[in-house]
């Protein structure tokens, strides 16, 4: 993952080195005792300076926000209290009060809250917890989550998923000191694995952003505890087990395809299934296919997962009329008209769920998905002894080897059409 490039105003070149700089608002200059923040980034490389400056600027902006009295995490009592403690600490430091005196005074207030009027010791401990964090004894893991994601350049959908995983972790381990290697290992493998049934791959994916966040705290927020994520997972299996092989996605055969169409009462979904079977396209590719990339004899996939996926696919004779009808009746510029976007701009999400309900109603398990049509597409071409390079061109796979991979511009449309015409989802002997 990468950090976004910084604005030039945050960098200053001086004495053959780069410095981070941030002007302090006029109203707060007396509070901080200076007109701007300035710190050496200890490098003469602009690219390295760019990678180091953002966390520094973010910390300064947080200090400014605290000095202004802004609440962080207004729905989180501990974060709100922590902001107030930091603000109080800043105010007294600006007057020259030593840190140990500031802390003693704050802890007296916290103790008074805890003891209560009747001296029973059943009051809140939130203030005491906030003081411990503010003075460096504890690292509150959830404090810097927003700042961390503001610096990451990832797709919104990925960011949302990573944030959910990270917040699940910090809810389980509020403080960095709580996250020992033994406790993290047990949580990941016993709680998430054995009790909740999450796969090893899912658990590895969940811990990945947490580990990156831990490194961020170590590099920018003074976290000194060792990473608790070392060797917490069981070793990867060298050989695939029988269960793993059986769990692989299976391909739809002709009889499966026909069974789906007979049971489908959704016209748009039926068109999607037909297009998927005769084009070999992924569901996302078909749902994002615009009319400008549809021709009388071919479609151009220009929004694929990889560069190899950008390809031209001849329109099979069996779907020529279907494609023509969809083009003539489209009301929104897409071949499959009327689909809705989800929050990430994906048009395939809702109709994909409709397909899932359809195939489940017919008794197909988790090993059969829309992608199974794509696998059936590949299976038919393989059985027709179509060359691997031709199949790869049609499906948008990488071509291995120098000759075909790096120098060939692809097969002419005629050769691709000859290959795709071997498909036949109507013949029961396929």
UniProtKB/TrEMBL annotation:
Coiled coil: none annotated. GO terms for biological process: DNA integration; DNA recombination. GO terms for molecular function: DNA binding. Keywords: DNA integration, DNA recombination, DNA-binding. Pfam families: DUF6538 (PF20172), Phage_integrase (PF00589). It comes from the Bacteria. The keyword Protein biosynthesis does not apply. Residues 247-421 form the Tyr recombinase domain. Residues 139-218 form the Core-binding (CB) domain. Belongs to the 'phage' integrase family. This is Integrase.
